[in-house]
Design goal:
CATH architecture of chain B: Up-down Bundle
Distance between the termini of chain B: 71 Å
Largest interface: A-B, 60 and 64 residues
Strand order of the largest sheet of chain A: 2-1-3-4
Oligomer: heterodimer
Structural class of chain A: alpha/beta
CATH topology of chain B: Fumarate Reductase Cytochrome B subunit
Number of strands of chain B: 0
Strand content of chain B: under 5%
Number of strands of chain A: 10
Radius of gyration of chain B: 22 Å
Strand content of chain A: 5-15%
Distance between the termini of chain A: 84 Å
Largest sheet of chain B: none
Shape of chain B: elongated
Radius of gyration of chain A: 25 Å
Number of domains of chain B: 1
Bound molecules: iron/sulfur cluster
Structural class of chain B: mainly alpha
């Protein structure tokens, strides 16, 4: 009843408001009611209720988190204090889902959630890149990443979601190509063939991108955009697998080959559906492990959530960096210590570094062959986000924000190292960092980890009379002989 | 006046203590129950509890996790908390009061130790108040309650200190009355404000970590409840 009376004015007001990013179906009215309805559904089905209960009493407002957040450091705006931002959601929780809040409404006449607050949320929760740097510094152990995800999740269920993310995920989960870049499988295979030729030209070796091989150890899921934008990274991946003797032990699935999982940034249901796709493809090919390419959020979403979304036998998830380090440590591959003369620095993608999972491995790899390695300060677990985290790197409308605000500190950090090469093993980070060095005119090149490895990889010289060829020949002969006898 | 004093010293104290104790107990049990429920609903039950609790404990030491910009805040906060916990519980005069109220007693600290701790609490508390007022990021994140609670706490310690001096210009009973009443206000507010972190502290980080272990069908069920089906994207 109340909403029917309020509708016209709300309607006019929301029409005037502009969303800071494109959304497909902007809700014109009833947003408050919708928000609360979805919030209630989350409290019922998910694990967020105990979290909200404890968070709504936990913050001591010490602002330590403020000083760790690159956004607040760049703007100094109270709205960018992590605790302040999370408190918007916590306040809605207190007001609408606790007895105290009910009393507040009854006795003090607090009207509760307003349209403006929804506008504030859809803006500010996309300012946060979900890097979780703030979670390192909270004495209480509050994780604003969780609050950011939950808010974005509620908003996404009311169709408030940047179109860039929505369209990619739609294609990945419901489109013909089943990946975020809409690459048809035949085109992916063509690219692989082309890369094989390139590799042959470069190394002389028959390095392959095996497709749909069954019963292999590794089923490979890179960020699918690598097929379009990062051929060197993919070539480096394949070359390492080849050099380590696993050429026949890995594969790319033709039915599902995308590691990207934007669900991690905004929606639990979608996060789960994408992880399930990776698991299903691995099962179809009877692969033993999921091997994730160079991508921070792809690695984290698979590694951290496979146990949640896998209802069958466990499938371990490993990152290509772990694989490569292992190969180096076991002496399976050799890297030329003179190949890279430039000064190199390393950017830690938040999604793999914040938990401490992949911090040492890439450094061990780099230090094993790069002479001039310099660190950014701070680095490792306490690194700064590239500024394009949480999916914002895909949202072109916030380009200015990513350059001038969220990426500012990262740009300063890179400049301070004086490095000529910035290594970032992540498709998202690389895109953001490439844009950053261009925007700030920093004389540095941004590459993937395996791009550099490819430059330094030492493969034994191919010789017509080499053992390998002999072996291959004799195998071929055997097959021929075999077929001969059968015939 | 003596009546009011006796009231504050007796029934009011017992009442506010009861509100605090029951309120905190309720919060603690509810949070524990929440944690159990989270683990039960999650499919992935592989949690490193020991590590999480160790990290939590490490935050109680000032040196381990210094404030990035103002290390003085860390030291102040540590000493402040030490005073706020030790003096109310272990000052001999308090123990007599506890004994009178709840019937048990325990060994206390000497007057001189209590004096030093009280002064330290007053100094560090004032410093923290100063930071809240003058440090931009903390001021921007502070509301009325944040100032109010700190000022009440400082008032409790200041009046306690003055009351225990042999000579002081203000009548003993007046000082004690303010001391008691402000302490009671603080006790009553404890379970309803951020001071609840005194009991929730060990559980907050744990809850955060467990919250990343989603119930596998949660997202889907939300979508179904809201849209009537798993709607296409
Ligand atoms: S997650 Fe990162 S961007 Fe978001 S509030 Fe925390 S530090 Fe800032
Ligand atoms: S660091 Fe934690 S306790 Fe301090 S203001 Fe931020 S969220 Fe609140």
């Amino acid at each position: 009843m109340g909403s029917a009376v309020a509708a016209p004015s709300v309607n006019q007001e929301t029409k005037k408001k502009k969303y800071p990013y494109y959304i497909e179906k902007p809700l014109e009215e009833g947003r408050v009611q919708k928000f609360l309805e979805i919030f209630a559904a989350f409290l019922r089905h998910s694990n967020y209720k105990p979290l909200l209960e404890i968070y709504s009493r936990a913050s001591t407002k010490c602002s330590r988190c403020a000083n760790t957040c690159q956004i607040y450091q760049a703007t100094g705006d109270p709205k960018d204090i992590p605790c302040y931002r999370s408190n918007i959601l916590l306040d809605i929780y207190r007001r609408h889902f606790t007895i105290g809040g009910w009393l507040r409404g009854r006795i003090l006449g607090d009207p509760g959630l307003q349209e403006e607050t929804i506008d504030e949320m859809l803006d500010t929760f996309y300012h946060c890149t979900g890097c979780r740097r703030c979670s390192l510094e909270c004495p209480m152990g509050i994780d604003h990443g969780l609050m950011m995800r939950l808010t974005r999740n509620i908003l996404s269920e009311m169709d408030i979601i940047p179109k860039a993310l929505l369209v990619s995920v739609r294609e990945q989960l419901e489109g013909k190509t089943a990946n975020t870049s809409a690459i048809p499988a035949p085109a992916m295979m063509d690219t692989c063939e082309f890369l094989e030729e390139e590799l042959e030209e470069l190394t002389g070796h028959p390095i392959k991108f095996p497709i749909d091989q069954e019963n292999v150890e590794y089923v490979f899921f890179p960020a699918v955009s690598d097929y379009l934008l990062e051929p060197d990274t993919l070539m480096g991946n394949a070359a390492v697998l080849y050099a380590a003797g696993d050429q026949d032990n890995w594969t790319i699935g033709s039915q599902y080959f995308d590691g990207i999982n934007y669900g991690l940034f905004y929606n639990d249901a979608i996060l789960g559906r994408i992880v399930e796709k990776e698991i299903a493809e691995t099962r179809r090919l009877k692969g033993k492990k999921i091997l994730i390419g160079e991508c921070g959020h792809a690695s984290r979403s698979a590694k951290a959530f496979a146990p949640t979304f896998n209802d069958g036998e466990e499938i371990p998830v490993i990152s290509i960096q772990e694989y490569t380090l292992n190969a180096i440590e076991q002496g399976k591959i050799e890297l030329d210590p003179d190949a890279i003369g430039e000064t190199v620095t390393y950017h830690d993608p938040c999604n793999i570094a914040r938990s401490g999972w992949l911090v040492e491995q890439p450094r061990k790899i780099l230090k094993s062959f790069v002479k001039n390695f310099v660190e950014m300060e701070p680095h490792g677990k306490a690194n700064y986000c590239c500024g394009g985290g949480g999916g914002t790197v895909s949202v072109d409308e916030v380009y200015d924000y990513r350059m001038k605000v969220s990426g500012k500190i990262k740009a300063d950090q890179i400049r301070a190292t004086g490095a000529e090469i910035v290594v970032a093993p992540c498709a998202n980070c690389k895109k953001q960092l490439k844009e950053l060095v261009e925007f700030y005119k920093i004389p540095a090149t941004v590459v993937g980890l395996h791009d550099l490895i490819l430059r330094a990889l030492r493969l034994p010289p191919i010789d017509k009379s080499s053992e390998e060829n002999n072996e291959q020949k004799s195998q071929e002969e055997q097959i021929l002989e075999g077929s001969g006898t059968h015939a | 006046m003596p009546d009011l004093y006796e009231l504050a010293r007796g029934p009011l104290f017992r009442l506010s203590f009861l509100i605090m104790a029951l309120g905190l107990l309720r919060l603690f049990l509810l949070s524990l129950f929440g944690i159990v429920q989270m683990v039960r609903r999650a499919r992935d039950k592989n949690n490193s509890y020991g590590k999480i609790l160790l990290t939590t404990a490490s935050w109680m030491l000032p040196v381990h996790r210094l404030h990035r910009h103002i290390p003085l805040i860390s030291f102040s906060s540590f000493l402040f908390h030490a005073g706020v916990i030790v003096v109310p519980l272990f000052l001999l005069d308090h123990i007599y009061l506890w004994q009178a109220s709840i019937g048990i007693a325990w060994p206390g600290i000497s007057r001189s130790v209590a004096d030093v701790l009280t002064l330290l609490t007053l100094i560090t508390g004032t410093l923290l108040l100063g930071f809240r007022i003058f440090s931009r990021s903390i001021r921007q994140n502070s509301g009325f309650v944040d100032y109010f609670l700190l000022i009440v706490l400082l008032l409790i310690f200041a009046t306690g200190y003055i009351a225990s001096r042999p000579y002081n210009p203000i009548p003993y009973q007046t000082v004690m009355l303010i001391h008691l009443l402000s302490a009671e206000v603080f006790l009553v507010l404890t379970p309803f404000t951020k001071i609840a972190h005194c009991i929730l502290f060990p559980l907050i980080r744990l809850t955060s970590e467990l919250a990343w272990k989603f119930p596998p069908d949660a997202g889907r069920n939300v979508t179904i409840q809201v849209h009537g089906e798993v709607k296409s994207i």
